[in-house]
User: What shape does this take?
Amino acid sequence: MTTLTSRAQARRAALAFLACLLPLALAAPARAQDRSIVMASTTSTEQSGLFPHLLPAFTQATGITIKVIAVGTGQALDMARRGDADVVFVHDRAAEDKFVAEGWGLPRRDVMYNDFVLVGPKGDPAGVRGKDIVAALGKLAASPSETFISRGDKSGTNAAELRY
Assistant: This one.
């Protein structure tokens, strides 16, 4: 996830987020005990501080509270498949498209985007400076002397690393 760097970007993210959740609020009248929903979100989004700014506005507008459960993308989509989450807020486009194509969810909406930044020694021993991320990761993967460490947790980030 990228950090929102301007008020305009923050406003766009807030509007996109609310637009994603509004259909849930309007879908059917909620009974008294149904005044909350569960959102499975990536840990990076939950830790970004975005939700404390957006969720109160959604609750005020709809009367519905949102319980956020922060997990990796793979786990969030699995929660939704089991019926344990009403909304998923994740970042693995390929997995999301598959999830929707299989009939598990409504068409996805872009809210934010990911950006990979490869950090290494100043001397650039792998020779990847200035290259695009796909080329850089490919070069690292092909090198017997360089090491790339991933958390390997089936998250959206991990899935993108493996694709690249």
Notes: The first helix runs from residue 7 to 27.
